[in-house]
Write a structure and sequence with these properties.
Length: about 55
């Protein structure tokens, strides 16, 4: 997904997109560190929904 940096500018460079399941809208990400893994888990629902829709 080439749009990753534009869709998640606060995470781009710190969290790599590892995959996208278009059937479920589930994204697999690879954080560079534990703090960024926590940041991903705590992103708001609106950010998660934008990313899910982009995956589909």
């Amino acid at each position: 997904m080439d749009e990753w940096p534009a869709l998640a500018p606060n995470l781009a460079g710190h969290v790599a997109l590892a995959g996208c399941d278009a059937a479920t809208g589930e994204l697999a990400v690879r954080p560079v560190s534990a703090p960024y893994a926590t940041a991903v888990r705590h992103t708001g629902d609106s950010t998660s929904e934008v990313l899910r829709v982009a995956c589909l």
